[in-house]
Amino acid sequence: MSTHRYSALLTDLYELTMLAGYFEKDMHRQPAVFDLFFRRNPFIGGYAIFAGLQPALEYLSQLQFTADDLTYLQSLGIFKPAFLDYLKDFRFRAKVTAPAEGTVVFANEPLVTVEGELAQAQLVETALLNIINFQTLVATKAARIVSVASPGTVVEFGLRRAHGPDGGLSEARAAFIGGARSTSNTWAGQTFDIPVKGTHAHSWVMAFPDELSAFRAYADCFPDQCILLVDTYDTLASGLPNAITVARELRAKGHEVKGIRLDSGDMAYLSKEARRMLDEAGFPGIKIVASSDLDETVIQSIRTEGGCIDTYGVGTQLATCGGVGGGALGGVYKLVRFDHQPKLKVTSDIAKATLPDRKRLLRAVWPNGEYCLDVICLEGEEPAAGTTVFDPINPSRTKRIPLEVRFEEIRQVVMQEGHPTLPASSLAAMADRCARQLRLLPKGTTRLTNPHIYKVAISAGLHQLRSRLIQKALDNQPRNPQ
């Protein structure tokens, strides 16, 4: 579901100046292919979760310069009238290839490929990176958190710390794909049909004469949705005993307290004590919710120490994607084919040399369904079991594809001539895909620290093409006189 109309000016100025230059040099209709990919897995982890495709396709579908947009561009004094006239009828009519959202992906793999006229494929770079980078990063962070919280569940609590209103909305969407089961963000609940959850704040307790009065009032207002925040004053000496008192009173009226929430202190110790006190009082069904700057490492520590938490409300660290190797996904968008010729960026660091031309992304799968490795190959190339493939970063390292595997195509055409080719998938289906694929990764790939490195390789044909283009580029460099 679209939340708002994306502006055609959701772009860096240099995309527009390049566009104007291509137009003036009569290059704007030349055929071009761009790949969107990232070079390092986020959080120094073993994988990423692809997300943001549906919003990206919505942006592409509605891309159009309004009269106000053109008036603003004219006011900059940069662009010539003929170019602005060209923008009046500008529409995105290119082809897009991508994985389904919720797909497990890895560094150096072509994720989104845009193929069409140079002007169209170039202009959308910034917006695609903005949408895909952020949502993929959040979905990955959520998946990491969910992996250590299980069998507990995760609620997305990040709106108040998110990077603006739209950031909060996008983050809630991506977190659900990554495995968060609900959100505190009611706008996200309305927009994406995500279950919404919430309790009350410390201010509710402080607004009443005492804690017990506050709990009774909340239970009276919400007898069937009552979760009590028990750490405003003293969790074990005051909050829990008062919550148990209200639970008894509510039960006598035919209702049950749903849970208690811990928002400070030693979560492992407090949750164990809370569980003991609730069970002894006859309330084993009351769930324990924890919040307060949680992330995957804190949750893992709580569980290692025997904490008894049923639901983790994760806010700041999920919304901002904090942690080592987080903060941003370094996705890039590179030209790989132009005017019917393969292209690559050449650098002295082969790790930054791009993979040229149109490509396929295949996943080799063992007979039991577990993933073996991914292979990037040229369009039309069919890597076979038993053949040799190459490390994309260090081509001297090779691997022979096992004979037992079969290949699955990871990507498909999702837009043709600017129109989506597939019906929109539900967020629940994306979340299920994410959970299923994570279970199929080799053992150790989802570890938080020092994960198993899942193999991504390039085919012999792609390796040979890249090597040939690199050598050609180096041969064409001018020699400095000695």
What does this structure look like?
This protein has 482 residues and is of the alpha/beta class. It has a single domain, classed as Aldolase class I (TIM Barrel, Alpha-Beta Barrel). The protein has 16 helices and 21 strands. Strand 14 and strand 15 form a beta hairpin. It is globular, with a radius of gyration of 26 Å. The chain starts with 12 loop residues before the first helix and ends in a 7-residue tail after the last helix. The model has no long low-confidence stretch (mean pLDDT 95).
Layout of secondary structure:
Blueprint: H1 13-24, E1 31-38, E2 48-49, H2 53-62, H3 67-75, H4 81-88, E3 95-99, E4 104-105, E5 112-117, H5 118-123, H6 125-149, E6 153-156, H7 164-178, E7 182-183, H8 186-192, H9 202-206, H10 211-221, E8 227-229, H11 235-252, E9 259-262, H12 267-280, E10 287-290, H13 296-304, E11 311-314, H14 316-319, E12 331-338, E13 341-342, E14 359-365, E15 371-378, E16 388-390, E17 398-400, E18 406-409, E19 411-416, E20 419-420, H15 427-439, E21 455-458, H16 460-475
Parallel strand pairs: 6-7, 6-11, 8-9, 9-10, 10-11, 15-21
Antiparallel strand pairs: 1-5, 1-12, 2-4, 3-5, 3-19, 12-13, 14-15, 14-18, 16-17, 19-20
Task: For this entry, give a set of tags.
globular; 38% helix; alpha/beta; TIM Barrel; 7-stranded antiparallel sheet; 482 residues
| CATH fold category name | TIM Barrel
Q: How many beta-strand elements?
A: 21
Overall structural class, as computed from helix and strand content, comes to alpha/beta
Radius of gyration based on Cα positions = 26 Å
CATH superfamily: Aldolase class I
Q: Provide the number of structural domains.
A: 1
Number of helices: 16
Biggest sheet strand order reads 13-12-1-5-3-19-20
Q: Would you identify the regions where 5 or more consecutive residues have pLDDT less than 50? A: none
Which descriptor suits the 3D outline? Answer: globular
Helix fraction, binned, reads 25-40%
| Assembly form of the protein | single chain
The N- and C-terminal alpha carbons lie at a distance of 63 Å
Largest sheet: 7 strands, antiparallel
| Beta fraction | 15-25%
Q: What is the CATH top level name?
A: Alpha Beta
CATH architecture: Alpha-Beta Barrel
What integer is the average pLDDT?
95
